[in-house]
Amino acid sequence: MSARLTVGAVVLLGLGVLAEAARGLDRAFVGQPHLELFTVMVGIPMTLNVGQAWIQDQVGLELSGAGGGGGAGWSGVDRGGAGMGVEGCVVVGVACGLPL
Q1: Which residues contact 51 (CB under 8 A, 6 or more apart)?
Q2: Are 76 and 57 in contact (CB under 8 A)?
């Protein structure tokens, strides 16, 4: 729950920056609809999912007391998936031994 609140807070606090980035992307894709579609359907969701997985991993490290980074990295396999739900594992392509 706290990972989602963190992501929500970051988005709300960065609305101005995100709006300017969106305007820049609009200008970059003028006349290139296929590239825009690929970016919207693949690139942006991948970037957001990786960011969410990283935040969940960091929150999991804090909750487990491991701190300091290292360990299994994104998947949390070394830590038994500490603090990471199924969605975080699926994002990086690791099932973490959880039923999907």
Answers
A1: 7
A2: yes
Read off the tokens for 86. Answer: 């199924």
pTM (2 decimals)?
0.43
Distance CA 6, CA 23 (A): 25
DSSP structure class, residue 11: H
Give CA–CA dist 37/33, Å, rounded: 6
Tens digit of pLDDT at every position of the chain (100 positions): 788 899 899 889 999 998 999 899 889 999 999 999 999 999 999 999 999 999 999 988 888 876 655 555 545 445 444 554 555 554 444 445 544 4
The residues spanned by each domain of the chain are: 2-91
